[in-house]
Backbone:
């Protein structure tokens, strides 16, 4: 079946393309890109007023399989991804059991084949059981398809262990993604340490806890040559350090969540656990620094850290609730609302940080539209206004910090390998 996406604006930064034109897809491939499609024989999607982009890629999600299916599973998580305009995601290793062996990683990839709606890549653990004591089966996992290594959810707190892990990962040509929060400074805290936490009387996680971890990892990257990717960077000083490290030629990159670009710790004033995450939402000054970092190339990617929890886990007093929120269905809309419609970032830069760069960092195909290439495509209506209601989302987690918030912009079509998996908000498979 032929699919013709008509009248959209093609935004394809890798090819320096930003122009109105049609896209024709047949047998999983893009057969014609740009200009006016000659034949109208097929399934036509009118993208007038919309952007046609390479499929969006979320390089940091938690699909929770195996073992935590009460929170999310591959079926619901990848449906949420499709609804959010994602064609590919990379899922983290902090499952039950931990993805620290090739056999477990292969099982996850098998489950993806059975239940996945979008492409799923797996990030293997750095350490066995995420304990930070013995190396995981990194080599075997790399052979089985691990795209990177991370103990995300946990900080690798032993510096010498991290050094060895980076030496090993470097030899395998894989990056380490670190959850940068020094455990001794952050473990006891529930939100950003600052004026709001003092006023609420809640123990905080100071930004300096992140800064210490980022500094150590940049130093170890310089020492070992292994690429370090700072997960969910959240504070102004961390952005400064990554900027300086890049200037020095240290092999490092960073990502930021859509929610850290939208919200600040002010939103926690009602002790609402829907805003509870790690690293925590920080100050307006930090939020502005994150945006600057994205604009000047210090931060390479926007991702979700989609970390759903079962509703009964999150619906408890603030200090008892787990960290993490679902984000796959709101990240694009949040980004367009807070960065595109405010004039902070162009659509081209948004496509770079939500598709081009994640593909490069993970070493996977994607991030570009080309004739003869794989048809992973997202069509985005930048002006579609909608109000978020957690109960209407595909994720199992009904708690979202965006509840009742009106966002502007939405993915209207998600195409994976030439197959329409989401159309106008409805997941079709
Ligand atoms: Zn993390």
Residues:
């Amino acid at each position: 079946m032929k699919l013709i996406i008509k009248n959209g604006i093609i935004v394809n930064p890798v090819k320096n393309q930003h122009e109105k034109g049609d896209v024709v897809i047949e047998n999983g491939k893009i057969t014609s890109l740009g200009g006016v499609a000659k034949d109208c024989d097929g399934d036509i999607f009118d993208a007038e007023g919309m952007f046609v982009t390479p499929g969006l890629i979320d390089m940091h999600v938690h699909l929770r399989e195996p073992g935590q299916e009460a929170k999310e599973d591959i079926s619901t998580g990848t449906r949420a991804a499709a609804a959010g305009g994602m064609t590919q995601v990379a899922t983290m290793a902090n499952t039950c059991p931990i993805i620290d062996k090739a056999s477990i990683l292969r099982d996850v990839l098998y489950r993806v084949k059975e239940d996945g709606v979008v492409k799923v890549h797996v990030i293997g653990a750095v350490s066995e059981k995420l304990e930070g004591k013995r190396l995981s089966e990194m080599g075997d996992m790399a052979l089985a398809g691990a795209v990177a290594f991370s103990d995300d959810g946990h900080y690798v707190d032993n510096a010498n262990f991290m050094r060895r892990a980076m030496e090993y990962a470097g030899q395998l040509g894989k990056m380490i993604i670190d959850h940068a929060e020094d455990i001794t400074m952050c473990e006891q805290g529930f939100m950003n340490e600052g004026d709001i936490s003092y006023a609420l009387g809640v123990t905080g996680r100071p930004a300096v806890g992140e800064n210490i971890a980022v500094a150590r990892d940049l130093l170890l990257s310089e020492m070992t040559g292994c690429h370090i990717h700072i997960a969910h960077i959240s504070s102004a000083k961390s952005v400064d350090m990554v900027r300086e490290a890049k200037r020095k030629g240290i092999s490092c990159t960073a990502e930021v969540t859509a929610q850290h670009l939208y919200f600040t710790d002010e939103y926690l004033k009602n002790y609402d656990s829907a805003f509870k995450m790690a690293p925590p939402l920080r100050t307006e000054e930090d939020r502005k620094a994150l945006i600057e970092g994205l604009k000047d190339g210090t931060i390479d990617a926007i991702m979700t850290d989609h970390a759903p929890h079962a509703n009964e886990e999150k619906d408890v007093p603030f200090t008892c609730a787990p960290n993490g929120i679902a984000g796959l269905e709101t990240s694009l809309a949040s980004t367009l609302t807070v960065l595109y419609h405010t004039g902070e970032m162009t659509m081209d830069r948004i496509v770079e940080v939500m598709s081009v760069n994640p593909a490069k960092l993970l070493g996977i195909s994607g991030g570009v539209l080309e004739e003869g290439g794989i048809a992973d495509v997202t069509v985005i209506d930048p002006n579609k206004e909608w109000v978020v209601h957690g109960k209407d989302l595909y994720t199992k987690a009904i708690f979202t910090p965006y509840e009742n918030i009106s966002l502007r912009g939405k993915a209207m079509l998600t195409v994976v390998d030439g197959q329409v998996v989401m159309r106008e908000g409805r997941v079709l498979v």
Observations:
- The radius of gyration is 20 Å.
- The chain has a mean pLDDT of 97.
- DSSP finds 13 helices and 19 strands in the chain.
